[in-house]
Amino acid sequence: MASICQGKSSWPELLGVDGKCAVSTIERENPLVEAIIVSEGSSIIENFRCDRVWVWVDKDDIVYIVPVIG
Q1: What pLDDT digit, counting tens, does each position of 12-24 carry?
Q2: What is the pTM of this model?
Q3: Domains and CATH numbers, the chain
C-alpha cells in the first residue's frame, strides 16, 4: 500500500537506532511525512496515511520495528 505514497516509504536501516535520531532521518529523507515515536505496548490508530510514519521504540528508546509509511 505504501507504493501509492510519494518519496521513500520504508527505513529498514533504522532498526536498532535511537528513536529521536530515526525521526530526524525519516523526516529529512521524506519531508512529506511526520515521524511519530510510539512506545512499545502503546495503542495507535490504524488508518493508513501517506503523511505518517510510526517509529516503534522499546524501553531504551531503540527502534525495534522497521518504520514504514502508514
Answers
A1: 999 999 999 999 9
A2: 0.91
A3: 2-57 (3.30.10.10)
